[in-house]
Description:
The complex is a heterodimer of chains A (about 1150) and B (about 300). Chain A is α+β, with helices and mostly antiparallel strands and about 1150 residues long.
Amino acid sequence: MKKIRQTPNEASITTVSRRQFFKSAALLGGSVLLCDKLAFAQKELDAAYARGENPFADPASIIHTTCMGCHAHCDIKAKIYQGVLVKLEGSPYGPNGKLPHFHYNTHPKDEALYDGKMCLKGQSGIQVQYDPYRITKVLKRAGKRGENLWKTIEFNQAVTEICEGGVLFKDVPGEENRKVEGLRDLWALRDRQVMEEMSKDVMTLLHTPQGEEKKKAVEAFKTKFSDYKGKNYLNTLIDPDHPDFGPRNNQFVWYGGRVQYGREAFYLRWFEGGFGSINWVNHCTVCGGSQRCGHAEYAMQQNPEDGQFRNEGGGKYKVDHCYFSTDFLHTEFLMLFGHLIFEANYGPTHLAERVTEGLASGRLTLVSVDPRLSKTGSKSHKWVPIKPATDGALIWAMIRWILENERYDKKFMSNANKAAAIADKETCWSNGNYLVKYKDDGPGDFLRAKDIGAVQEGDIAKVYVAQDGKIIPVIPDDVTNAVDADMFFQGEIQSKDGKTIRVKSAWQLIKEYAFSKTFEEWASICGIETETITWLAKEFTSHGKKAAADSHRGTASNAWGTMTTFSLNTLNTLIGNIDWKGGWQKGGGSWDFKGTKDHQPYSVMAKLHPGSLKPFGIPLSKQCSVRGLGHRDTTYENSTIFAGYPAKRPWYGPSKWGVYQEAIPAGAEGYPYKLKALWLACWTTPAAANGNAQKIIEALADVNKMPLLFANDIVIGESSMYADYIFPDVSYLEELQTSKWPSSNMPHKANPLRQPTVAPVVDNCKVYGQEMPISVDAVKMAIAEKLGLPGYGPDGFGPGQNFTHYDQFYLKSAADIGVGDKPGDDVPDASDEEIEIFKKAHAHLPKSVYDYDRWREAAGEQYWRKVVTIFNRGGRFQDFEKGYDGDKMGNKWAKMVNVYSEDCERTIHPGTGKRLPGIAEYRPVMDFFGNDLLAIDEKAGYPYTFITYKVVGGANFRGTAAYYWIRETLPENYVVMHIEDAEKDGLKDGDMVKLSSVSNPEGMWDLKNGRKYPCGGKLKTTSGIRKGVIGVSYHYGHWAYGSTNVKIDGEVIPGDPRRGSGINPNGIRRMDPHVKDVPPSDPIGGQESVPTKVKVTFMTEEDLALMHKHNPAAFITKEMTKTYLGGV
Amino acid sequence: MEYNTDKLKNMEKKNEIIKEDEQSAGISRMDFLKGVAIAALGGAALLTTKKYTTSPDVKAFEGKKKRYGMLIDLRKCVGCESCTIACKSENNVTVDSSGMNARRIFWNHLVYTEEGGEHPAIHARPQPCNHCENPPCIKACPVGATYEDESRCVVLINYDNCIGCRMCTVYCPYSRRYFNWEKPHFPHVERLDEKGMTASAGGFNPSVQVRTKGVTEKCTFCIHRIIAAEERAKKEWREVRDGEIQPACTATCIGGTRTFGDLNDPGSKISRLVKENKDKIMRLEEHLGTEPKVFFIKENI
Lengths: 1128, 301
């Protein structure tokens, strides 16, 4: 009997669907449990609806957490039904989830009724969580690297093998006798005091002049530590003749992908404080490293104790800031340099609405500077189709016009110190007026008191400006004596030993550089008409402070990205828009989640890490310091392997995050030293995402270059497939971490929180007697347990404070956030009702990831209710109104901004031996020897410039493989080419083409496991790209990630080739012609350069045969998508 | 909206309520069978007696309790497809395995128009079902599986009755109706037993019925969310508040483009926006007389 059903949601489920599920259970074999569960669920639901209840209106069926579809950290909530995740929504508690977001004290009962906004990748998180290709058990390779022959191995056995080493692969042909050094061998230096002493002496050694003095210092070091505290410590070093390499601990390298800040803190505590290795490498330089560096240069501040300008990561004068962006909600004129606010960036979910409101109301004029017409570009008022990597030239053209027409904010730019700024109702001032001394080869450091006379007390912080033509001292952070200065000045002053010093103000240098080319010359370099540039400059200076020039990667993704981003900031400085509503902002920032403030209970990285080690030595990627911008310790010039110019491999500017494309090849080559063990985790995939992907594949596949290689991954990925061991990892919907904002495009202070929403699908392991899901955190704790690393296990946080489950770390961090940065800055205590909601919402979680008592004890009884408040909301979020303060931003920078950088001009390029400029001059894409690489390749017969970009469905490289729904909207990506270029070359839509370059003339991917196929796919023509430019997006072209067959324990697990659809263009990226295994890279920020000159040719019959065999997805998709995501 | 308090006191007696609603909506089993007979004779008679508005002006509609509609501001649409994907997740929509573009099921679909030449541009227009007031799909259905929920002015499908003839997919001028050619496929819910790959599965949104091969489906304006809000309001002895009902697409939209509400309520946000933007509003294929209830604010050209 069937009744007419008014609404499809009721009943019918109890008849048709149940039948359906019983039938399909047999086919799927093993789905009986699912069927029973659902039938039960549906009966319950019928009853619930009859009572007028909607299960998802109850806060007890919702867990608030944070997305990780990209790096925007959007605030989301998970709807749980019968212990299973069934839907994800945006969370209106957070500024990403609703505009404006709910007040923090909104009761969860009220918030539960409202779903916030969420992008398509966030919605697809359910497909990441329940991806059929997720690995649940530990795998060990049963064949050669990359062969994809695996066997399951018990967790403890895998940890033992990695720690103890030995002949681990005797069943693999060619490795029968290969002995692997385990981590215990590499954990050579374990004594904290000895490490500190060595570190101090190495620092002294580094700063000792080259030649005899340095040789003597090395000998002294060796003598000292061959018999120190009664032991010979020289064998703990990588090379006693080169103490600056550091201990052998440094030969263990970490590569992290989308780690995010809470887990990063956990891992750094382990990697540096526990294991004592300096070689923490983050993925930054594949995409954003130089962006951040350019902003970091803009943000340098003076250390009053030594008068130097730095951007320190910690310590008394910590600045630790590397991002600035626009106040999107109020700006009136916005120039975006490759900044896809509707498609990528950090991220569309919160940026879109802030901008679309302006587009609809007419408040905003939007400009998109991009070689390609993106969707963002299409909605812009003007698309400026710039030549790739010439953004600096456009910026300098604008700077020139603005200076020539005097349309800059004179008042702002004349302020020379904080007091002058405050007097003018500004919060910031620039260093543009400070006088720069000339060296023989050009502008050098700022003029300082020591240059012109005896230094007295209080003189150390003095710099100099000209005021009405007279040179006077000024202290940048002086709040009492307002000093206005001449912007443009050049003159002379006598040094203390009677020599003449030529000085110019930084603005003078900027003006001279801007005028070193005509307006037409600048325009010609970037390929934009002068009328357009005039319009841009005029508009930019016609909206007071409510204008901004912003970039995400457009200014950064080339070999001069730091300086280009720095020039963007110079442009913004001309209108003095920093800290103003509608202008430039530093972002809301976050509460301290590491507990470093005196007021906070748990200093999880420092005070609560007994016996922590402090690593030292030259990092493999050879950054000049890990202490922050302005420090120069491990420079090439300081090192014991200095051998003149050019250096053997590139050395880079200061950064904590390493150089992603460099560390593996450097370690493979052994410069400065060999890599012995490599740990890949958190979606890191250098074998696919880096420009030198092909070279990295070669290195990873080579057991001699990478003796021990293990990974955590949620699937068998493009890079982890080369590992010796793959541990599963929890997904972002299963993990626990407290975190902070990644960027500055959000004006509200906030700490997103991630917490387990459902029981992890991965197997459990037991560490320190505790059950926990196999994950990066668990493996770290297991290795700590096995080796006895300091700071883990019983008394791991200190006497009587055990560290036996990873969640104890994050709960303490959450308590720190709950307490806030100072007294009175705490969140409200959760009521009894909220505690009940918390308990109910978490009741379905297993003890391996959640235990009320364990959590409460870890947070501390007195902080527990604050922690519950935070967990019930998915983080801590500043209320909307606090983001603004009258006509200014609520969270202000209120410090100096830089248009001249001593850090830059003190840098000697390791390839050319020449100093870099101190102002943000323009350069084309240069190779290691300073040659214009794009011009060279064009002459060699490669006519098109390749660029890449992101589409809104993709986010990072991992992108679309697991996103089944998104791949229905865009099944593959294309080689995008201008329609007229295509016609000229006899190409049309749908043609199978491949790319080739000087570095890869054959245009082939070679995965070093027998799979070799062309780097290419279908062609798509469009008017929406600059002529002469080829675009291929990210995210596609997976060769693993469930797209290919693998064998586990002898059984074939068939892949789904559709998951491998599309093109990964990194196979043809240009390598530096002199270094050969890295792309040309930014000498300061380290970012790898993307633009590559390529040819586009038809695939031959042979090519097509290889595609059919090794990359058949292109032939599965029957038609081209009529209009593809990302352009016309 | 009137409440029969006796009715509410006996919420357990669901069947009585349903029957009463059926009668008030004017649809009964007999009507459907009549409809079948009429269709079989080749007639194109309407199955219900209705009055229709012919303009976007808000008019109180006789006999209707709610008249739900949607407004989409194309000035704010950034073409991200978040609405498309949220809808798929919310409504347990299948993943197509055929690889053919035409077989994909998107209850909400983005239609792109490209402009080439000197000033290239790409325009995106999201399209849910229009929930027409003169719906051709209902006329097409020979068994009355497609019908109008007249208390809410929402066009729905009774999957049990659908015989899979696909006439409705042809009749709809907006191509908003989809047929399940294959057994629906849900990679995040189905599982195969594989060694080393035994990752456990997710689940369906239990609020929405899962369809089978051989039936047609389409956007329901998230009727389950509408009912949930109405039931909650009933329980709290109040009207449904304007803005309380958010279909999944409306909630998820990152550009802030969508407004959902009751066109019969002159004070609702949608009624207000339709009125305020009269000169910028359009509906699709108006000349066909389908009386769609999805309104678009045109882009600033």
